[in-house]
Write a structure and sequence with these properties.
203 residues; alpha/beta; Rossmann fold; four-stranded parallel beta sheet
């Protein structure tokens, strides 16, 4: 599981716990382990845009650790939220299934997604930071012949799967104005789709 831009906080830990309760072996990666968000955010975002760097090494190391675990079925999925959703898209060719939640499409996404694993993706229709991303992803995966389930939720914005507001407290009023934050109804449906999709592709 790859966290959103604010890091591996309590909200992200609860997302990992939810996957665990669904019966999955889960490893929540901390892409900011080399010094926290203040020190690592810029370099991690550069990695996302460039397609290389420590973040990808961390994700690949996590994949290999899971494959070596006695409880692993030898099929590994990746789940990402926000920034983590972007990483999940770029890395989808290395996994058996991917759940992308409001993730930014990679540069040259048609080329990247041509070698992707099956993808289930969720976007908020009110997400001003990713206008049209869901439709673009759906079209690219259809053109590439990749099995997928992409859905856009009316009334939901960015980070709609979170169960509580996130980010620095001083920014939370601005994030609410921008339409970011929990949308329980959409989140419940998105989780149901993820669990069904993973059951089909990771069993």
């Amino acid at each position: 599981m790859v966290h959103e831009i604010f890091g591996l906080d309590d909200v992200m830990r609860r997302q990992a716990e939810r996957l665990s309760r669904a019966g999955y072996l889960v490893l929540a990666i901390d892409l900011y382990s080399a010094g926290g968000a203040k020190r690592c955010l810029v370099s991690t975002m550069r990695s996302l845009y460039s397609g290389s760097g420590r973040a990808y090494s961390d994700i690949e190391t996590a994949r290999h650790w899971l494959l070596g675990h006695d409880d692993c079925t030898k099929k590994v999925g990746v789940v990402g939220f926000c920034m983590g959703g972007g990483f999940a898209l770029v890395c989808a060719g290395n996994f058996d299934a991917a759940a992308v939640n409001y993730g930014q499409l990679p540069r040259h996404h048609e080329e990247v997604l041509a070698r992707a694993c099956p993808i289930v993706a969720s976007y908020g229709a009110n997400d001003r930071s990713l206008p049209g991303a869901g439709a673009q992803l759906d079209a690219a995966l259809t053109a590439a012949g990749v099995a997928h389930d992409v859905k856009q939720y009316p009334g939901a914005g960015h980070s709609f799967m979170n169960d509580a507001p996130v980010g620095p407290r001083v920014l939370r009023p601005l994030l609410r104005i921008a339409g970011m934050g929990p949308h329980p109804e959409a989140a419940a449906d998105a989780w149901q789709r993820i669990e069904c999709f993973f059951a089909a592709h990771l069993s």
